[in-house]
Amino acid sequence: MDAARLLPLFGVVLFTLPALWRPDAGAHPDTARGLIYLFTVWALLVALAAALARGLAPALDAEEEAEGSLPSLPTTAPPKDGDL
Amino acid sequence: MPFNILVAVSLVYVLFLFLVAFVAERRAARGRLHFLYSPWVYTLSLSIYCTAWTFYGAVGSAARSGLEFLTIYLGPTLVFTGWWWVLRKLVRIGRAQRVTSIADLISSRYGKSNLLGVIVTLMSVAAATPYIALQLQSVTLSFGVFAADTPEFWALPNQSATALWIAGGLALFTILFGTRNLDANERHHGVVTAIALEAVMKLVALLAVGIWVVWGLADGVGDILDRIDASALADWQLQPGRFAGLTFVSAAAVLTLPRMFQVLVVENTDERHLVTASWAFPGYLLLMSLFVVPIAVVGLETAAPGANPDLFVLSLPLSQGQGGLALLAFLGGFSSATSMVIVAAIALSTMVSNHIVTPLWLALARGPAERGDVRGLVLTSRRLSIGAVLAMGYGYYQLSGGSEALAAIGLIAFVGAAQVLPALIGGIFWRGATHTGAAAGMVIGFAIWLYALFLPSVGEGGLISASLMKDGPFGLTWLRPQALFGIDGLDPFLHAMLWSLLLNTLAFLTLSMISFPGPVERLQGVAFVNVFEGREGAKGWSRGQAEAEDLLSMAQRILGAQEAQLFFQAQAAAQGKRGFLPDPTPDFLAALERQLAGSVGAATAHAMISQLIGGAAVSVQDLIAVANEAQEIKEYSAQLEAQSKELARTARALREANEKLTSLSVQKDAFLGQISHELRTPMTSIRAFSEILMEPDLPEAMRAQYAEIIHEEARRLTRLLDDLIDLAVLENRKVNLNISVANLHDLINRAVQSASSTRPERDFRYERDFPTEHMPVFTDTDRLVQVFINLISNARKYCDAERAVLRIEVKRSKNRVQIDFIDNGGGIPKAQQQLIFEKFARLTDTQKAGGAGLGLAICREIMANLGGSIDYLPGQGGAAFRMTLPLRRREGEAEPV
Q1: I want to staple B82 with a disulfide (CB 3.0 to 4.6 A). Which of A8, A19, B384, B415 is the partner?
Q2: CA proximity to B116, closest of B293, B356, B337
Q3: Would you say residue B861 has pLDDT above 70?
């Protein structure tokens, strides 16, 4: 779960890194490199998120079921006239 | 690619979408649409984030400003990979509070204030209108691309006519499939299916064009990368401010755009779908933008100078003679535009009808006594709003003349929508956020957005004069729209975003700290911020004086009779009570309010209930409970509470049982007394008259008359004994049923005819709906008719209205049929409702009734034997009985004794 919290921060850092390249870019155009870099980071994030999702799914299932059982109606039927 | 084929194909595609939506609705109605509940459909429906602005505009944007277009997709990627922070909480709150729109969420959080709902609604409409216009424009332009090189005959006579047709078709689709049910929490199956299909369509189209460009026109990846570095795109310089700002705004917009909120939160059925969407949606965005740069680069190389780069996706395949591919791309763009407009129209119309129309109507038609169905009103207003939203989009398109200025509107709309962000995030994470702060922040942010970004965007000399742009209003240079407070030289977009969000947040925080939240607001704040603590939302209602019956009749007007009765029945069962009327406990009231909020929004639902309860909404105890932080530490108190609730439920059931037992023992005595009495009266007269008959010289006429009386009394005696034996047999479930098939309509006819001998002199009218009555029933028809006759005769006997009317309503649900007998008399007092099904229960005196009071008792036993039930139905404006019956009775289905 902590990993799930940290993942977007990781993404923010990696996505803003290109902002620092500018000074040393010089005359050499590197748009293609930038493109490859951004898409690699992106794919990495998707893969990490998918891996995390796989790990978290059982925990969420359990949570969902625990919730579902709370507001359920009483299983014992209300008394009927015939009972008496 | 002949233009007429294009028109034909798009018409076929539109028809296909209508068909898909229709079939999905049909199948969902029969409960056979499980794939709709898969996380993949949820993820695909999120793809309405990618509008025509993405499909066409991303390539144009890449051609103009390089990799900057990526920011629009990186923002949402960050939000979704970080779903654990915000999205999970939003979805949980949305489900717990039955939120209908983003305006509803904000209004509900800040004390169910409708003012905030109105503010958010107006902002959303203002921001979305140009965006809808942009979609219309994109479809019109793409038609134009095809029309460009066709003979004059096929050239579009008028672009605005095309836009009008599209807007009209979209309005029709949205009204047909977007307003089927009132409860905005329910999913629009047809719409969701069509949108999922369109999501696949646009992805396939863009990928197809991309693959063709990379491996068809160019020589694979390496060649494309070389071409990129050689093209004009390579001159692109990253501006850190814009890069970060755009990423932030798109991240905010994915949360706050009304249409995104609609698919993300309102249409979500299962929180676990988010887990899949957390990586699958960023993946979808990645695929959508993968080929954008290659298409832009190759487009720039091959296209004629001055060509519109926004349309490269279409014009590139077209210029290379790839008609089929161009057609596919056209359908992709068409899909992107239409799906966005449909969902936006649904979201906006829900907001407009829940926050503007319904409250207005409630304010004008005062008092809960006002009759009439609110559902019709809300649905009509929703349909009209859809029409109005699309008409406004079309109007804006006409006004702006389909100019290039529209292309920038996507980002402008994003910044407008983002103004809700501080109130939204503050509302779900900070208990101290208040109504005043939220309202002030949003209004200030919105005003700056209008002044600094929206109005200037309409164009020089449009709504803002050129001199004002240059010198500021009244010559105050520090108020120039694009250089507020003298900060000059900033990118206009970045400038407006910075100031509007900064001052918005500042006002929100400051005013939140110096103002105090009201009671309801405090409770809602806790319920929102602590939504994961598993605590029930604040009750909000102390035990009111409302009668459950009044609440039921109000709920029926909003939810519909069927649904309201089911809800009340379930709530009563949860309290351990039978019948339709639960006690108006705070728990019940809160549940009812949530249920209503799903249809008309939190603010309206709250107002309607407080009308009935009479104000006193929050008790001091509730507030103390909230203020008491120590309470949160005691984790097990929740468990204790659950246990004590269970105990209370059992105790209530026991108490009812005990009361019943006591009254039954009293009844037993009374029963014996009654029986002796009922038997003795005819016996006495038989004995007396037979003694007279023994006298020798009695005239013949008298003898005949006395014999007649004896005979009549003996028959009455037999009838009584027959009834008693009948009842005993029925009660022991030993009755022999004579099952056959019959038409329900005929059975009712038979009963009406037989019952007409009861008080035949009476003016008595029946209200029936013949078509619904025709259905076969497999049951003991004689017994069923016996019940009908009893109910009808009772109505004929006891209905005290001047012009008595008996309404017979038949409704079929799955394999059961439900038959209501409702008259227009005074009804049965609440205290007696429990008793009427007991033996010898009579509300009036014996003589008048002329029966032994066994009728309804027998009816109840017959229905139990037939596997159905009969109950008194309160709140119908007269005596009303509801029978339910299985259409086909199976052996051993009788209710267990």
Answers
A1: A8
A2: B356
A3: yes
Helix locations, B473-585, DSSP H: 492-514, 519-529, 548-559, 561-574
Average pLDDT along chain B: 80
What is the predicted ipTM? 0.74
Q: Give the whole-angstrom CA distance, residue A6 versus residue B828.
A: 64
In this predicted structure, the answer to whether residue B271 has a pLDDT above a threshold of 70 is yes
Contact check, Cβ <8 Å, A53/B247: no
Q: In which residue ranges of chain B is CATH 1.20.1740 found?
A: 3-24+67-360+373-405
Per mean pLDDT, which range of B335-339, B368-372, B391-395, B553-557 is the poorest? Answer: B368-372
Shortest CA distance to B432 belongs to which of B531, B505, B512, B530? B512
Contacting residues of B for A5, CB less than 8 Å apart: 82, 84-85
DSSP for B220-275, please give it: HHHHHHHHHHHSGGGG----HHHHHHHHHHHHHHHHHSHHHHIIIIIT---TTHHH
Helix, strand, coil % (nearest 5) of chain B? 70, 5, 25
Alpha carbon B1 to chain centroid, angstroms: 44
What confidence tens digit (pLDDT) does each residue in A26-70 have? 444 567 777 888 888 888 888 888 888 887 767 666 665 544 433
Measured distance CA(B24)–CA(B126) in Å, rounded: 33
Question: In 3-state terms, what secondary structure has residue B101?
Answer: coil
Judged on CB neighbours under 10 Å (0-12, 13-18, 19+), B99 is buried
Contact between A10 and A49 under an 8 Å Cβ cutoff? The reply is no
Q: Quick one: fold of B3-24+67-360+373-405?
A: Amino acid/polyamine transporter I (1.20.1740)
Q: Each residue of B276-308: pLDDT tens digit?
A: 888 899 999 999 988 888 888 888 888 777 777
Range(s) of chain B covered by CATH 1.10.287.130: 638-731
Query: Which two tokens mark B496?
Result: 């407006």
Question: A10 to chain B: nearest residue by CA?
Answer: B78
Among B283-292, B496-505, B761-770, B883-892, name the one with the lowest average pLDDT. Answer: B883-892
Confidence (pTM): 0.70
State the angle between helix axes of B855-865 and B781-798 in degrees (0 to 180), rounded to the nearest 10.
150
| CA torsion, ordered B767, B770, B776, B782, to nearest 10 deg | 40
What is d(CA B277, CA B43) in angstroms, rounded to the nearest whole number? 5
Would you state the structure tokens that stand for residue B152, as one six-digit string?
Answer: 């004059």
> Residue B871 forms beta bridges with which residues?
B882
Q: Hey, CA dihedral for B173, B176, B181, B186, is it positive or negative?
A: negative
Band the pLDDT of B849: cuts 50, 70, 90.
very low
Question: How many pairs of residues across A and B have Cβ atoms under 8 Å apart?
Answer: 142
Residue B204, CA atoms < 13 Å, CB-side half-sphere:
12
CATH 3.30.565.10 occupies which residues in chain B?
Answer: 739-886
pLDDT value, residue B629: 46
Residue A22 is nearest to which of B238, B247, B290, comparing CB atoms? B238
Q: Does the pLDDT of residue B181 top 80, yes or no?
A: no
Mutation target for A interface from B43, B78, B578: give the one with most A CBs within 10 A: B78
Domain B739-886 in CATH: superfamily? Histidine kinase-like ATPase, C-terminal domain (3.30.565.10)
CB contact under 8 A, A8 and B79: yes
**Chain A residue numbers touching B83 (CB-CB < 8 A):** 4
Neighbours of B754 (CB within 10 A): 15
DSSP B855-875: HHHHHHHHHHHTT-EEEE--S
CATH architecture label of B638-731:
Orthogonal Bundle (1.10)
Closest by Cβ to B233, choosing from A1, A31, A83: A31
Mean pLDDT, rounded, for B200-224: 88
